[in-house]
């Protein structure tokens, strides 16, 4: 195992333990708790629901490193910056069977500067269920154009996959 890969696995395990111990945090915007379910941790490593695809290692590492800031943001935020709702088929257990049901899905995006980092935390709710941590990303990025200039990219618009 390569040294970088070993460090990545250690980071993933540290965040998994922190995540598992998190449980829930009180969010002033909702005036209720936001839960940290296994779905949120899984979403930091994979994207897509019907055919999950592993995120590239750089994206995984970035999300895992930023995760410690998510509970801080949720405990402080009183303003939402993005909101999206849609209907999706989700898997539901009924009488020990898994079935697909059409449900309303709600997403909230909260942006803040925490510990000198501008981040966005996404919270997801399926129907009337609990509000759950869904994702964390830096609220900006950059890439080089073909002319060698750097341009800033803002992550927004697709709260399901961000």
Count of structural domains: 1
Question: Any low-confidence stretches, pLDDT <50, length ≥5?
Answer: none
The fraction of residues assigned to DSSP E strands is 35-45%
For the CA atoms, what is the radius of gyration?
Answer: 17 Å
* Overall pLDDT: 86
Secondary-structure element series: HEEHEEHHEEEEEE
Q: Order of strands side by side in the largest beta sheet? A: 5-6-7-8
Query: Helicity level, as a percent range?
Result: 25-40%
Q: What overall geometry do the principal axes of the alpha carbons give?
A: globular
- Structural class from helices and strands? alpha+beta
Description of the molecule:
- With 162 residues, the chain is an alpha+beta fold.
- It has one domain.
- Helices cover 28% and strands 43% of the residues.
- It has helices at residues 3-22, 38-45, 57-66, 70-76; strands at 24-27, 32-35, 46-47, 53-54, 82-94, 97-114, 117-126, 131-138, 141-144, 150-153.
- The strands form four sheets. Strands 5-6-7-8 form a four-stranded antiparallel beta sheet. A two-stranded antiparallel sheet has the order 1-2.
- A hairpin with a 2-residue loop joins strand 6 and strand 7 (117-126).
- The two termini are 30 Å apart.
């Amino acid at each position: 195992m390569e040294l970088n890969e070993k460090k990545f696995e250690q980071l993933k395990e540290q965040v998994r333990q922190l995540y598992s111990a998190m449980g829930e945090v009180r969010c002033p915007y909702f005036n209720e708790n936001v839960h940290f379910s296994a779905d949120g941790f899984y979403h930091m490593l994979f994207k897509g629901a019907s055919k999950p695809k592993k995120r590239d290692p750089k994206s995984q590492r970035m999300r895992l490193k930023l995760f410690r800031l998510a509970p801080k943001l949720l405990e402080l935020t009183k303003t939402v910056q993005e909101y999206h709702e849609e209907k999706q088929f989700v898997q539901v257990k009924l009488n020990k069977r898994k079935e697909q049901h059409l449900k309303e899905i709600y997403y909230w995006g909260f942006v803040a500067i925490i510990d000198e980092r501008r981040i966005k935390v996404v919270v997801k709710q399926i129907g009337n269920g609990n509000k759950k941590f869904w994702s964390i990303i830096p609220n900006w990025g950059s890439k080089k154009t073909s002319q060698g200039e750097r341009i800033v990219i803002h992550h927004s618009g697709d709260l399901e996959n961000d």
